[in-house]
């Protein structure tokens, strides 16, 4: 579903951009493009999970429950790699199309500007939410790990007052000895 979210976000921002760039041909363009867009949206999850589909899956017991794990048929093809690729491509396209939309909005006539302003600002706010979610998804886990784990925090930022309470901070220095 993350792939669907990324692809849908791209189509939404491209939709708003074409509405601003070609308002008279907008309906015709999207009438022809919608079947293609729906096909990509439906097919996009399979571009991420294809290795899971062809791999051996098995249940794993975790904390009284279970989850499904898999042994990869194609070693280099991980879910996180493909999710990251989808997210980065979506981010780039979203930034590009939103920038063009906002730039062209400044150049529109007042009559068109007032009718499109609300839709474009709504699109901009959704793009901003998508961008912030993508940024926090990409860097959120390491930040949370550093904030929660005192030992990891001290390892990343070696300041004694950041060391975990109740632990001993040992300074290691190298000593060269002649034998």
Automatic annotation (TrEMBL):
Keyword Transmembrane in record: yes
Transmembrane segments: 33-56, 76-103, 124-148
Keywords for the protein's UniProt record, in alphabetical order: Membrane, Transmembrane, Transmembrane helix
GO cellular component, one term: membrane
Keyword match Transmembrane: yes
GO molecular function, one term: transmembrane signaling receptor activity
Alphabetical list of SUPFAM superfamilies matching this protein: Family A G protein-coupled receptor-like
GO biological process, one term: sensory perception of chemical stimulus
Protein location: Membrane
Major localisation: membrane
Pfam families associated with the record: Srg (PF02118)
Protein topology in the membrane: Multi-pass membrane protein
Similarity comment: Belongs to the nematode receptor-like protein srg family.
Name of the protein: Serpentine receptor class gamma
Name of the gene this protein is made from: Cnig_chr_III.g9146
């Amino acid at each position: 579903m993350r792939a669907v979210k990324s692809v849908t976000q791209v189509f939404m921002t491209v939709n708003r951009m074409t509405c601003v760039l070609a308002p008279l041909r907008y309906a015709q363009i999207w009438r022809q493009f919608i079947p293609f867009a729906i096909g990509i949206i439906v097919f996009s999850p399979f571009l991420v999970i294809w290795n899971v589909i062809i791999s051996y899956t098995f249940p794993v017991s975790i904390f009284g429950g279970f989850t499904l794990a898999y042994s990869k048929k194609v070693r280099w093809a991980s879910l996180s790699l493909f999710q990251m690729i989808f997210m980065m491509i979506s981010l780039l396209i979203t930034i590009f199309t939103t920038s063009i939309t906002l730039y062209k909005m400044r150049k529109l006539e007042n009559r068109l500007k007032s009718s499109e302003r609300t839709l474009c600002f709504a699109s901009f706010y959704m793009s901003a939410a998508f961008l912030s979610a993508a940024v926090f998804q990409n860097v959120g886990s390491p930040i949370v790990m550093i904030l929660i784990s005192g030992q990891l925090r001290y390892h990343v930022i070696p300041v004694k007052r950041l060391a975990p309470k109740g632990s001993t901070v040992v300074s290691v220095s190298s000593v060269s000895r002649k034998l």
